[in-house]
Amino acid sequence: MSKRTITRVFLGSTIAFVAGLILLLVAASLGYARDGFMMHGPDVMGVRSNPFGWSAVALTTLAVLVMLGAAVAQFIAWVGALMATVQLDDKTWFVVLLVLGLISFGFLSMLAYVVAGPDDGTRPGAGNLGRISPPRLPESEQARELTGEFDPRVANGGSS
Q1: Residue 47 located in a structural domain
Q2: What is the pLDDT of residue 52?
Q3: Cα separation, 24 vs 34, whole angstroms
Q4: Any residues with CB less than 8 A from the CB of 141 and at least 6 apart, and which?
Q5: pTM
Q6: Based on the structure, what is the number of domains in the chain?
Q7: What torsion, rounded to 10 degrees, do the Cα atoms 146, 147, 152, 154 define?
Q8: Are 36 and 53 in contact (CB under 8 A)?
Q9: 56 falls within a domain
Q10: Is 142 among the domain residues?
């Protein structure tokens, strides 16, 4: 995964998570304000069987699903960042992302990676995706080799 893709997934999932959280708060607030919930003190005992009560439940469910999807996307971005940084010669970013992610500070480490992490150009082989092309002969020698006129002993100075 490239840093650009990781950044897009991370930022998109962060925006989706915040939108889901706002939707959750609005749905719960409207459900409470419009008397859509049966309350006993501070506890919700049930949902009133009216269209507004069930609409609040549906919006709350949608908000929770959006937040869960965003959390999965955050995890995917974190794993992508780990895979990108493990290929670097300097393992500092990999260790920081791994340790902070494992002790539940993955969001902060990913935020630091997006802002100040190494670009794809610093990774060896990033331009050609790690493939090594075979050495190429000059055009005239390549043409002679294909026609059978090329003798490698002559090209190496006569030594076998």
Answers
A1: yes
A2: 80
A3: 15
A4: 150, 155
A5: 0.68
A6: 1
A7: -150
A8: yes
A9: yes
A10: no
Q: Give Cα 67 to chain centroid, integer Å.
A: 16
pLDDT along the chain (160 residues), means of 10: 93 97 92 78 80 85 97 96 92 93 92 89 50 60 62 58
Q: Which pLDDT value is given to residue 128?
A: 46
C-alpha–C-alpha distance, residues 112 and 6, integer Å: 13
Reported as type and span, the H/E element at residue 39 is: strand 37-40
Place of tokens 């794809």: 120
44 φ, ψ to 5°?
Answer: -85, 120
Which single residue is written with the structure tokens 């490698």? 152
- If phi > 0 it is left, if psi is from -120 to 50 it is alpha, else beta; for residue 61 that is alpha
The predicted pLDDT at position 137 comes to: 56
Identify the pLDDT of residue 26.
93
The tokens describing 36, both together, are 């859509």
Strand (E) or helix (H) holding 46: strand 43-47
Residue type, 66: V
Give me the domain span that covers residue 97: 3-125
Residue 9 resides in a domain: yes
Q: Which amino acid is at 72?
A: V
**Beta-carbon neighbour count of residue 101 at 10 Å?**
19
Tokens in use for 51? 């269209």
